[in-house]
Specification:
Length: 432
Amino acid sequence: MLRTFAGLDFGTTNSTLGLAGAGRGNNAGPRLLPVEGEAPTLPSALFFSLEDGKTYFGRAAVFEYVDGAEGRFMRALKSVLGSSLMEETTQVGRMRLTFVELIGRFLAHLREKLEAEARRAEAAGEASVALSDVVLGRPVRFVDEDDDADRAAQDQLEAAARSQGFSNIAFQFEPVAAALYYESRIAAEELALVVDIGGGTSDFSVVRLSPERAQAEDRLSDILSSTGVHVGGTDFDRLLSIAEVMPHFGLGSSTDDGKRRMPVWYFNDMATWHRINTLYTPKIRRDVYALQKEAAEPEKLARFGHLLEHRSGHRLAGAVEAAKIELSDADETLIRLEEPGLDLRAPATREAFEAATAELVARITGAIDAALSEAGVKAEAIETVILTGGGAQVPAVRAAAVSRFSHARIAQSDAFGSVGLGLAIDAARKFG
């Protein structure tokens, strides 16, 4: 009997849903399901509208929020897994929901896409789609240097998936999944380093790949090492915002008498995707208003108050993210946010961006060193470097990833799709 199985990549920034076939005579390769219109990627965002009571996902969620609809916008929920926030509830309209429930709602939306594909395949007489089985991607480390929190993060993600009807759940490391997809297209054995720079985490694996090894169900012996750090694209956004944007809102300024500086944590949270919503409380608005009255530069705190009053934090974060992407090709840009009552035009240069994020790049370099050391190989032994994840487009990150491997082939995998495709391949092997 021909069947197809699902791999689900729940990402910090974008998510994908892959399918791959298993069964005699079924030689169809892996593919990504369209999950928003014809797009194979779904931004990992939700918007709970207070105007029509609907929940929007992906680009539609971003549009509703940017368009100024009244409601609650949430993004980068994956970054919450394993953190203390998972023990809390958050207000969504008239409801208080746990973060497991919020993640479950996002996974439920993806499951609806899988169910729609199952109905389409049945009507067309094609291979049936398994709805209870799924391989979920996970970073090598959800939480650095805390094994209990790391295990809790996987358990939380599994609980969210199980609550939506997935009963047979397996996990695969995201960089390994990216390697499985690359492996499906090679003709000879290679020793590869997989560099996966995601939205919230960066993972690195040294793996043996070959057409023959690809047929094995258990690939554990081919994974020579897997390391990871809790550094990703949103961290680069955060440090760019702190360096170039938050000073316009009061970071680093002092009280009028010069005795105290403004509290730093307000600005750190406003620069952090998954912390922004925690600032939208009456108490914090009152506190910031009180700070404004005693500030040496009250106009800056007034701008911060605007962000709180109009819930503009994620719009600002989006502008910072857009500038980061522009700095991949340009030496300088403007971080722009224009809306009634606020006109921000903050210059940013690649040089300043790289200075602000040098520590993040150093941590990535250290994790690559650890992957080589754990595998017991030198850089010269690596034949292929597989780059995946949107963060690998940052020039300083790419340079750190490939500078020691000038002899190796650099394979730029699908930035957002390779993990989902590899998870689907793994699902067909595990369940098929």
